Amino acid sequence: MKNYKIQTVQEYQEQKQHRNQTILQMRQDGHTLQSIANEFGCSREWIRRLLKDEFGITKKFKFDAKKHCKENEYSAQDISELTGYPFAYISVLIQKNWIPKASRIIETNVCHMLETYFWKKTDIDKWIELKVKYLKIALEGYLECRLSYRTEKYRCAYKFTHPDLQRRYKLLLKLQSGNWKGKLSYNSKRNDEVMKEYYSYIKPFDYIPKDYSKYVNQKTNEDYAQNGLFNGYETSRILGIAMNTITKYRDRNVLKEGEHYFAGNHYHHRFMYDPNKTKKAMIDAGYDLVAAKRQKERWAKLR
User: Fold this and answer.
1) What is the pLDDT of residues 163-192, one digit of tens each?
2) Each residue of 46-69: b (16+ CB within 10 Å) or e?
3) Which residue among 152, 182, 193, 302 is the one 20 to 30 A from 288 at the CA level?
4) What CATH number matches the domain at 221-302, 2.60.120, 1.20.1260, 2.40.50, 1.10.10?
C-alpha cells in the first residue's frame, strides 16, 4: 500500500504565505499581472484578487530603485545627481562604455530598464575622480588656447575678461575647491581618456593646476556693471536703440569719451557706455525716440 504524505495546516499556511510574498515581490519588481499568472499557472484575475484581498493593492507598483539599492551601491538616479548628467544620458554612457559596468542588474518588467542598474560606490567614486581631473585639464586647455590664439597674419588672443573664458574659469575654480557635485556634464570630450585610465590602459599622471593669478585683476562685465557701464550690445538692448545709431552719435562727437563712454581693454569691452548719460546726450542732440519707434515698426511690417 502506497504511503501518502499528508500536509499539515501549518505547512499549508507557510506555503501559502511564501507564495503570496513571492507574488507581492514580483509585482513590486514591475511584473505584469499576466506574467505573474503565467509563472503560477493561474489566471490574471486570480492574481489581481489575491493582491487586493491579501495586501490591499489595486494599482500597479512602480519600481523603487532606492528600496533595492544596497548601502555600498549607487543607482542611476544617484549618478545623475552626482554628475549633473540628465538621467536618460546615463543610458548613452552605458552604450558607449563611458561608465564602469554595472555590478548588478535586477530582472524586472519595468518600462525604464535603467532604473534596475546598480553600481559599486568604489567604482563610481574612482570614475568621478578621473572625470573631475580630465575636466580640469579640458578647461585649462580651452583657456590656454584662447589666451594664446594666433593666426599666420596676426595675433588675436582673447582677453581673460571675455565671458566665455570667465564662465569656464569660474567652473574650474569650483572644481579645484572640491565643489564638483552636479557640475560634470560639461562636454570635455575626454570620456575615452577617462575610461582608458580607469582600466589602466594608459599610465596615470598627476594633475598640476596652472596659475592664473596674473589675470584675475583684469576687469570683467560684472566689474563694469557695478559702475553703471555696459558694452555696446548691452547698452543697445537697455536703451532700445540700434547699435549703429549709437556708434553714429559717438563718431559725431556727441558722445564724449570719459563722460558718456570709456575705452575698454578688449574688443568685447572696446567702448563701455553709461546708458543714462548716453540716452540724454543723444536726445539733446536731436534724436527722436518716437520717430525712431515708428520707423522700427514700419521696417518690421516690411519684413
Assistant:
1) 888 899 999 999 999 999 999 988 888 999
2) ebbebbeeeeeeeeebebebeebb
3) 302
4) 1.10.10
